[in-house]
Structures are given as structure tokens and as C-alpha cells.
Amino acid sequence: MRKYIYLGIAFGGGAGSSLRYIISNLLPSHSALPYGTFIVNMLGCFLLSFMYHFFTNFFTKARVLQKTVTTGFIGSFTTFSAFTSEFVQLFFANTYLALIYILGTLLLGGIMTILGSQLGKKWFN
Question: pTM value?
């Protein structure tokens, strides 16, 4: 069972990171703000909390599928390291914009997580 979980995570990770790369390239930064990373992380916040309720209520025994989607796909789709790296670069270029970016990401990320959780509860409970 454990080897299937690892394979699922690897498969989901490849798909999630590939989709992140595609989205980041479709949304080039026209200003200093890294829109691609921001959008991907907001979607990830929503999806992870939404899928939590899905797996809690429907696929409680499908650990391979759960880990493939959550740890693999969503975990590699979102990117904390790119977020912090882009924040530091932005901080040295424009401190004010960097603070807006980090606070906006944290605030909207929290809101997206709450929305995903509430919608997941509504749909799957």
C-alpha cells in the first residue's frame, strides 16, 4: 500500500507542478507583482480545504487517491518557496508593494481556505 501512495504522490506532484508552470507562464507579471504564484496559491488554498471535506465524507479508505490529490497534486501546485523568494525580490525592489503582496496573500489565502471549507461542508456533508 505504501508504495502506491508514493507513486500517487509522485504522479500528482508531476501534474500539479506542470499545471503551476503553465498557469505562471499564462499570467506573466506586467508589473512587479508575481500574479501566477498568487493565483496558484489562492486556488490551492481553496482546493485543499474543499477536498478535505470530499475525502472525509466519501473516500475515507482511498488513501492513495487522497494522497495523490492533496499531497501530490495540490502540494506541488502551490508553492511556498516561490512565494517567499518572489517576496524577497519584491521587497528589495519595492518594499511597499512587497508588504501589500505578502499581506494580501495571507489575507486572501485565509479567505479562500474558509470558502473552500464552507463550500466543501455544504456539498459533501
Answer: 0.89
